[in-house]
Write a structure and sequence with these properties.
Radius of gyration: 19 Å
InterPro entries: Metallo-B-lactamas, PQQ_synth_PqqB, RibonucZ/Hydroxyglut_hydro
Pfam families: Lactamase_B_2 (PF12706)
Strand content: 15-25%
Number of strands: 14
Shape: globular
Bound molecules: D-malate, manganese (II) ion, zinc ion
CATH class: Alpha Beta
CATH superfamily: Ribonuclease Z/Hydroxyacylglutathione hydrolase-like
Largest sheet: 7 strands, mixed
Number of domains: 1
Oligomer: single chain
Pathway: Cofactor biosynthesis; pyrroloquinoline quinone biosynthesis
Family: Belongs to the PqqB family.
Protein name: Coenzyme PQQ synthesis protein B
Order of helices and strands: HEHEEHEHEHEEEEEHEHHEHEE
């Protein structure tokens, strides 16, 4: 029987309707640094400061399998403002939240620094692999997430677990590197282990993949991605030498553990033959031309079937 729709029983919070749908809201579409980045005078950062292109906060995604219970994938340094801007995550009582858990996909600053904001004796589960938990445990400042309040749950690769009620997740290895602040003399930029992971989400009959950082698309990943209802994928750079061209440093995307979007080895070409319901780029570096809505590069990506993520965008698989 159809229920009368009031504001309180909107699509977002109607449990009957929402139960069937995996919901995702991009909290932050930019890579580390955000757009604009505090110290960057590149074209995009200047345009964002002038309000001529939309600013974007740092890498994070909110997900729910039922519209009531939510998880946050990656705790960005911007999490405070991101949660304030997302009605689904607002408190429903004095200390009652729809947030059940936080999951981090690597130990990079843009994905863990926001944990410090979540320190107000608020219970939730922090999910990560053993390797990523170790990185967090090694840094005593994170003991601000008090033992006995925040449950730190170690997740083995390729093992499904309940991320939130009605939402199952599985972590899988993605080629990448250790966080910048843990790099030694030599760095394996395509390391496969539990330091960089992707997330497979399942709710109802939907299967969605979240891979915000990926150095190279190997056969395991291609197999996993094929047939997904939605993919949110590493869109850090348009081209590998983008930051060098802009005069912003000497690092290539490959050195940073990120495959680029364009070119024959890029993500658009490499996934052209895969069946994917909805393709979305996330984790864009502030130099990426796709962040300019009127750029040729954005038009090209969209023509090839990709959505350019942006803050607040809801993705429906
Ligand atoms: C990355 O995604 O490459 C890192 O988050 C860079 C950084 O540490 O800022
Ligand atoms: Mn990052
Ligand atoms: Zn910039």
């Amino acid at each position: 029987m159809a229920r009368p729709r009031t504001k309180a029983a909107s699509y977002c919070s109607d449990p009957d309707t929402a139960r069937m749908t995996l919901r995702m809201r991009i909290l932050g579409a930019a890579a580390g640094g955000g757009l604009p980045q505090w110290n960057c005078g590149c074209r995009n950062c200047n345009l964002a400061r002038q309000g001529k292109i939309p600013a974007q906060t740092q890498s994070s995604l909110a997900v729910s399998g039922n519209g009531r219970d939510w998880a946050i994938l990656n705790a960005s340094p911007d999490i405070r403002i991101q949660m304030a801007a997302c009605p689904e995550l607002h408190p429903t009582g004095p200390r009652t939240l729809p947030l059940r858990s936080v999951l981090v996909t690597n130990g990079d600053i843009d994905h863990v620094a926001g944990l410090l904001t979540l320190r107000e004796v608020q219970p939730f589960t922090l999910f990560a692999t053993a390797g990523i938990h170790q990185v967090i445990a090694d840094n005593p400042i994170f003991s601000a997430l008090r033992e006995g309040v925040v449950d730190r749950s170690q997740i083995a690769l390729d093992t499904p677990f309940e991320l939130a009620p009605d939402l199952t997740a599985t972590l899988f290895a993605v080629p990448g590197k250790v966080p910048l602040y843990l790099e030694g003399e030599t760095v394996d930029t395509q390391l496969i282990g539990d330091q960089t992971v992707g997330v497979e989400l399942k709710a109802g009959n939907q299967r969605v993949l979240y891979i915000p950082g990926c150095a190279i698309l190997n056969d395991d990943l291609r197999t996993r991605i094929d047939g997904a209802d939605a993919l949110l994928f590493d869109g850090t750079l348009w081209q590998d030498d983008e930051m060098i061209r802009e005069g912003l440093g000497q690092k290539t995307g490959a050195r940073m553990g990120h495959m680029s979007i364009s070119g024959p080895d890029g993500s658009i070409a490499q996934m052209a033959d895969l069946t994917i319901g909805t393709r979305v780029f996330v984790h864009m570096n502030n130099t990426n031309p796709v962040l300019r809505p009127d750029s040729d590069e954005r038009a090209e990506a969209e023509a090839k079937g990709w959505i350019i993520g942006q803050d607040g965008l809801e993705i429906t698989p």
